[in-house]
Design brief:
By secondary structure, the protein is α+β, with helices and mostly antiparallel strands. About 20% of the residues lie in helices and about 25% in strands.
């Protein structure tokens, strides 16, 4: 007796074909993670047009540096849409200020993932434009070991373990030549949620100031977000802590513990990593807090008032050779001081960097090329 033939179930194959088609369609419209990348280096020893060196009343030599930090929300479609006009507004505003001789002298960008976002530094005419980690860049230093089970709990539908679609989105731009330019990505498992889709990390460089005895270090990073990562808070904070440890290891390799520095990045919500690590443990490290009017005030990492005054903060430290002092700070394009052009406000800070006039200048003049 012949057995009845089983009917062929076609729906699993149809569903699989539809799913593959959707994946292919999404992949086809994903942004090109390399299209926005810009890099430029000032000519070796070119000091023309730099901020002038002044003599203070106490006899010290000094230079004022205007620093603009801005997370420009340069996210691509389909993550964001309609950003081109506002990014063009940001680029035009900075370019007009520089054309009028009003700075900034150092521009620090975060989330500059698109060509319209990286154009901000180009349109302003900066002679040195330094990007952070590239999309395909891998961490060369040892990654911070995650807690047991952390890597196994990664979920691809949350953007984890599906590869990097974007670079780090970091830029430092200036007219000053740069020395010792390096960048690093965070470890493969040192991220959480949709933040894993970009190759976040850090960059470090040193800016020689004319007549100064040593360069001023610049550190820039963008660590894991909290709620926008769309994972549990505990997982997002674990990633933040891992990335803090990796930032510390990166800095240890290029900056002595007493290096004079301006540090920018994820200093916004007093997160898990901000309560520990190199900056929290350094009694000389300070945040730029707001005083009366536009005056700046030094604030320790534990100063809750400073954390509440601005969504983004910049930190700094001095040493015996270079004194770093914030003179003024303003929050711009926050809906009160200019229209909102990003989900982060711009932070504009004027620093004074000073040194003993009889100190031996950095010599011989170095050739300021990146590596």
């Amino acid at each position: 007796m012949d057995r009845a033939e089983r009917p062929v179930r076609r729906w699993p194959w149809i569903a699989a074909a539809v799913l593959l088609g959707l994946v292919a369609a999404v992949w086809a419209v994903l942004p090109d993670g390399k299209a926005a990348r810009v890099e430029r280096h000032a000519a070796c020893g070119d000091l023309a047009g730099l901020p002038r060196v002044e003599r203070l009343a106490d006899g010290r030599s000094a230079m004022r540096l205007r620093v603009l930090q801005w997370n420009v929300e340069g996210l691509p479609w389909p993550i964001r849409s309609g950003r081109k006009e506002k990014l063009a507004h940001i680029a035009d505003w900075i370019a007009k200020r520089r054309a009028a001789g009003l700075g900034p002298d150092i521009l620090i960008l975060h989330k500059a993932f698109t060509p319209e976002a990286s154009r901000i530094a180009v349109a302003a005419g900066f002679r040195t434009i330094l990007p952070g980690p590239a999309r395909d860049q891998r961490r060369e230093l040892a990654a911070a070991p995650p807690p047991a089970g952390y890597a196994d709990a990664a979920r691809w539908w949350k953007g984890e373990h599906v590869g990097k679609w974007l670079d780090g989105g970091l830029y430092v731009a200036t007219d000053l030549p740069a020395m010792g330019v390096v960048s690093t990505a965070f470890g493969r498992d040192s991220c959480a949620g949709y933040d894993c889709l970009s190759n976040k990390g850090a960059q470090f460089l040193a800016l020689p100031l004319p007549g100064a005895p040593e360069p001023l270090a610049i550190f820039n990073t963008h660590r894991n977000s909290r709620e926008p990562a769309k994972v549990g808070i505990a997982r997002a904070e674990t990633a933040h802590m891992l990335q803090t440890k990796e930032n510390d290891a990166f800095l240890t390799g290029f900056a002595a513990s007493d290096t004079a520095m301006i540090a920018a990045g994820d200093f916004n919500n007093y997160r898990a990593g901000d309560r520990s690590g190199r900056f929290a443990a350094d009694p000389a490290f300070r945040l730029v807090g707001k005083g009366a009017g536009f005056a700046a005030r030094p604030a320790p990492m534990t100063d809750h008032a400073a954390w509440k005054q601005a969504y983004d903060l910049i930190g700094y430290r001095s040493n015996d050779r270079l004194r770093v002092e914030p003179l003024s700070v303003a929050t711009l394009f926050d809906g009160k001081h200019g229209p909102r052009l990003s989900d982060h406000d711009a932070q504009y800070i004027v620093f004074r960097i000073s040194w003993r006039s009889d100190a031996q200048p950095l010599a011989p003049p170095p050739c300021f090329k990146g590596k």
